[in-house]
Design goal:
This protein is of the alpha+beta class. The protein has two helices and two strands. Helices cover about 40% and strands about 30% of the residues. Strand 1 and strand 2 form a beta hairpin.
């Protein structure tokens, strides 16, 4: 049987804080890829902070929503 060219590498055990940081970083990476795809399709995307979540221990995080504008439709509607 042929051995595959790759092997699964397990992530190291992370404490909950580091796991949370990695989860946010992964989500932001996926969000940035989605924004690039949308922009390449003629959509303008702006992230707007709508609230700030406070953890009660001095930590906080901004929460955002996308504002979307379809550049192609705006140009076509004006013609």
């Amino acid at each position: 049987m042929n051995k595959p060219d790759f092997e699964r590498v397990e992530r190291p055990d992370l404490d909950p804080r580091d796991r949370a940081i990695h989860r946010v970083a992964d989500a932001v990476h996926r969000l940035n890829e989605a924004i690039q795809r949308a922009v390449n399709e003629g959509v303008s995307v702006e992230l707007v902070r709508v609230s700030r979540h406070h953890g009660g221990n001095g930590s906080w995080g901004d929460q955002v929503v996308p504002t979307i504008r379809d550049s192609g439709r705006a140009a076509n509607d004006a013609a």
